[in-house]
Amino acid sequence: MRTLTRRRGFLSHGRPGWVPASAARFRYTYGLGGASVLLFLLLLVTGLPLLFQYQPGDGAYRSLANLTYVLPYGWLFRSLHFWAAQMLVVTVLFHLLRVALTRAFLPPRRFNWWLGVGLLVLVVGLDYTGYLLRGDLEAVSAATVGWSILRSVPVVGQALAALIFGSGGQGALLGLSAWHSSVFPLAGFGVMGWHLWHVRRDGGISRPAADDGTHIPLSQLAAREWVAGLAVANLVLLLALLLPPGLGLAPDQPSVAPVPAPWVFGAVQVLLHRLSPFVAGVAVPLAAVLLLGSAPYLEERRPWLGRTLVLAVATCFTALTLYFWWQV
Amino acid sequence: MSEGRADSLEGNGITRRVLLAGGLGALALAGLGLLGPFFRLMATSPPDGDTRGRLKPMDLGEASRLAADLPPGSWRQVPETHCWISRDERGLQALAGTCTHLGCAVRAEGSGFACPCHASRYDAEGRPVQGPARIAMARALLRLDAQGHVWLDLSRTVDASFRLPL
Q1: What is the ipTM score, two decimals?
Q2: CA A295 vs CA A92, A109, A199, A215: distances in Å
Q3: How far apart are CA A18 and CA A323, in angstroms?
Q4: For residue B115, what is the nearest residue in chain A, using CA coordinates?
Q5: What is the mean pLDDT of chain A?
Q6: CB-based burial of residue A210 (10 Å sphere; 0-12 exposed, 13-18 middle, 19+ buried)?
Q7: Which of B46, B103, B132 sits opposite A273 (nearest CB)?
Q8: A75: which residues sit within 8 A by CB, 6+ positions away?
Q9: Poorest-confidence range of A300-309, B23-32, B65-74?
Q10: Any CB–CB contact under 8 A between A181 and chain B?
Q11: pTM value?
Q12: CA B7 to each of CA A24, B17, B18, B19, B102: distance values in angstroms, whole numbers, following the listed order
């Protein structure tokens, strides 16, 4: 027992001494929460060198072009940052699905589910603001669309748009850079810490119904996490080396082709073709977030309703995103 | 140490509880009072911001030269703007090439204009013909100064019948 509960250093004090073997199986969690934490930390580390070279405002496009094509290894850090961000969106979405499908959002873990939904919103916010910081034609279009959507909100729309984008124009990149590189990451770091602490407070991660009562020590869990972490980090590195992101046209050039949204927002772009800006850009996404938030309650009423609802939201999002890709 | 110290400061009836509550209240008031200035600072750009610069009236050059360069009936983009100008028998007009759906800059396509963001299409007069846009694109004001130069004023819109006679 002594070896099972032995603590090693500060980091392991946030971890359990042992975990149920059934919950630690890879095919129960797919390591998605852990992968998301690793990717978030990778994003903090790779974002830092970019912050030293990036120039928000009128010089944004030029500074990013320098970073991508001139400065030594600038493309590499940008590419790593880009691919870690794409993967983070994927891992948090699948993590959300895994938690819902294993019914891990029921009390006592209901509050932590809400923290998770909040983190999803933050990740989407980081993805959007990060895309806008490119300052190329696509980014300016995406900023214009987002600004117009926010202004379509009744009563508070003007104030919301001014809060996020400042007074508009190229100067908006100053504010967006502040949101992207300090406000959202700080909030994300804080809520992520809260989320992780809550996992332990709520009695560790959920375990499957078929639990045989055996445990594995932290050392064994940590070994598995090392392997999974190495796999994730190597995948980011591989994608970053093989497929570095480019840069679009300068913002003052006329567009020559349709401007697709970044893929995370492809679903909204499809809806914007058909529905009013407020419905497509605000009401539907807000309804999706509220549905996700209410899933644990519904699952308590009917033992399948919450899961089904989360699956339905995910299916709609996937279908719209695939349709968006097919169109582009 | 003494009981009096625990209950009040200097014996003037102010208890620790009142002092702390008062301090907290004052902080909360100051915080609330700062919300307005905070918001105004967030939403204001420096006086020489690019936004205002872009809306300054632009000199398009001499009217006679402009007329000679522009074949009647076709649109031509004004460099460094999303604005198109054209000439017909009644005079010169300027179209603000901003999509009326969500504000993206349109491009010339075929005989009209197309928005790259959500595929709205406009005819040659800037009227919507397809896609989510429902409103015609705005016309910008054109002015002739005393030296015979045409000025484009993107901050002022006019209706579709407006022409600057040449």
Answers
A1: 0.78
A2: 17, 12, 19, 30
A3: 45
A4: A258
A5: 91
A6: exposed
A7: B132
A8: A67, A68, A69, A244
A9: B65-74
A10: no
A11: 0.86
A12: 56, 9, 10, 11, 63
